[in-house]
Design brief:
With 89 residues, the chain is mainly α. It is built from two helices and no strands. The longest helix has 13 residues, at 2-14.
């Protein structure tokens, strides 16, 4: 019984996805053109990732394990100040 309920829940979740193309609702407009640009970019142009967002790796990966160098900035966290109790004077 539990397996049937779980299978039914999974199937209902799988059916939730919408398969139609994206579009604007009636009355909506595309966002305004970016500053300095006369024309509005198309949806496909807005969805393409710029080259700067996916940089290529410029550092070689390590091929063997090495000892870590001492990090002078690897310090323990500071002690949190303890609230002082009301002291009668």
């Amino acid at each position: 019984m539990k397996k049937a309920v779980i299978a039914l829940m999974l199937l209902s979740l799988a059916a939730c996805g919408q398969r139609s193309a994206l579009g604007l609702k009636p009355g909506q407009q595309m966002p305004p053109a970016p500053y300095g640009r006369q024309d509005k970019p198309a949806a496909a142009e807005l969805l393409t990732t710029p080259t700067i967002a996916i940089p290529e790796r410029s550092v070689e990966l390590r091929t063997r394990s090495e000892e870590r160098q001492d990090d002078p900035f690897d310090l323990p966290p500071p002690e949190s100040p303890q609230p002082e109790a009301d002291k009668p004077e």
